[in-house]
């Protein structure tokens, strides 16, 4: 290979060096370190020491952690499904508005994204409380016999997580709905389909890749949520992310926390691949 060809090949490759270095520094190295720590031994009263033991992973084969993992996956899937059910008609209605009318809605969604999980958690905790919340409003309207609190509870956890994840769902769906050819639905209605039937038989199948991507994004986001279950739920509503934080910070058991984190990453990656494969296999030909 001549020197000119080598320089040309180098110029083609160097733009990817920076993102590759960032990926190596901020994902590969930390994740590799976490995997290594997951095989270490905990030192009682101290931190941990290098070793190779599978005891941290063996603790997963218990009913307690199986229940927590199943609840975490089920809660994340439920949050993703609700965000899709609400986000699809909302985004379709939003994209059919004039461009100037869309801007305030998009700004409002971005404002929600600017709020931290702490603010969202305490805000919903106040709104759902007995003394200063929605219970008092329903009591004043005569819908409740007495003011009551809706937190802590599963409904409060679900509401808080859907509220936090909903803007992500809309922002992923928005480009797909904006680029959707309106003649598809018009053609189906010309052939006799009702608007509802055209939406379910023409519009949604055309948007299947965006729907799958939205489900995956919200699912992964909800799976990593750990503060809202603590603020709005009871201990039985805690997810695996909460237990990872508890073991790492409060129990000082970093090897077991690392093992749970690795297990959570592997489980989420497998589910994401499965969801993507289902969406690809059912894509319109």
Automatic annotation (TrEMBL):
- Say which domain of life the source belongs to: Bacteria
Report the Pfam families cross-referenced here: BPD_transp_1 (PF00528)
**What PROSITE patterns does this protein map onto?**
ABC_TM1
The record's subcellular location field reads: Cell membrane
Signal peptide annotation: none
Kindly indicate whether the keyword Transmembrane helix belongs to this entry: yes
Family under the similarity heading: Belongs to the binding-protein-dependent transport system permease family. CysTW subfamily.
Which keywords has UniProt assigned to this entry?
Cell membrane, Membrane, Transmembrane, Transmembrane helix, Transport
**UniProt protein name:** ABC transporter permease
Which residues does the UniProt record annotate as the domain ABC transmembrane type-1? Answer: 69-275
Q: Does the keyword Secreted apply?
A: no
Q: How does it sit in the membrane?
A: Multi-pass membrane protein
> Where do the TM regions start and end?
16-40, 60-91, 103-124, 153-177, 198-229, 256-279
The protein's predominant localisation is membrane
